[in-house]
Design goal:
Structural class: mainly alpha
Distance between the termini: 62 Å
Number of strands: 0
Number of helices: 8
Length: 252
């Protein structure tokens, strides 16, 4: 190669060919992908977590540390699968359903286990479980009108719940009791407050959906009959209908 050849500008590298398809239709995302694998892993870790938690009398120091470690790993997969699903475009119908189930199963199993061991009052576990099941049912009830977006309060609620459970799992000294109780009370308060907020959102969404359907010709949002796009969707196909990602639904 001569000096003149080296000085000449090189042509741009060819870009990888894109898979063509009908206009407006996105390529189908495979169900078996990294985000969904992490979600399934979290579900499989729930019985492992319970088995470790109840080793011995349920208050064995090594077992409690092991249970806390398993819980932390499972909770961490919740953060990772949401990021992976959004960044890599791996949002699937399976993930939308399985992800919140995995989260509810992990939190519920931890609270039930701690209540069975006498560490957390049963009424706290029952209250949080009722709220989680109620919000999940509420989402399905209004799904045809639109999606209730996950609020910042919902994400904060989940974070506080996870932190409280993790600390309750650790074999901390008795002096930490008042601080743990204060943290779980904060979790309960956030649980109730965000639950009321989601009920208000559901009522507004349902009324808005009825108003759109009752419009001229019964046309839905953006001229599509029978479809209502929730506030903030801005016509984004990923945000329409039930197109939320893993973390958005699970952190409600």
């Amino acid at each position: 190669m001569t000096a003149d050849d080296a000085a000449r500008p090189r042509p741009p590298a060819p870009r990888p060919a894109r898979v063509s398809g009908p206009p407006g239709v996105r390529p189908e995302v495979p169900v078996v992908n990294l985000a969904n694998i992490l979600t399934v892993l979290r579900i499989l870790l729930v019985p492992v977590f319970l088995a470790v938690l109840f080793l011995g009398d349920g208050h064995d120091t090594a077992a409690r540390i092991g249970a806390a470690a398993v819980f932390a790993i499972a909770a961490l997969t919740d953060r990772i699968d949401g990021e992976v699903a959004r960044r890599r475009g791996l949002i699937t119908d399976f993930g939308k359903i399985a992800d919140p189930i995995a989260d509810k199963a992990l939190i519920g199993a931890a609270l039930v286990g701690l209540s069975a061991l006498g560490d957390v009052s049963w009424w706290i576990t029952g209250l949080i479980a009722a709220r989680e099941l109620g919000v999940t049912a509420l989402r399905f009830i209004v799904i045809r009108h639109g999606v209730i977006p996950a609020s910042r309060g919902g994400k904060l609620k989940t974070l506080v719940q996870v932190a409280a459970i993790f600390l309750y799992l650790l074999p901390l000294p008795a002096a930490a009791g008042p601080y743990l109780l204060a943290l779980i009370w904060i979790a309960v308060a956030l649980t109730l407050a965000t639950g009321v907020d989601y009920v208000v959102q559901a009522v507004r969404l349902r009324r808005g959906g009825r108003a759109v359907h009752a419009g001229p010709g019964g046309a839905g949002a953006a001229g599509d009959p029978g479809r209502y796009v929730g506030d903030g969707d801005a016509g984004d196909p990923e945000a329409e209908g039930s197109g939320q990602g893993h973390e958005d639904v699970a952190a409600s």
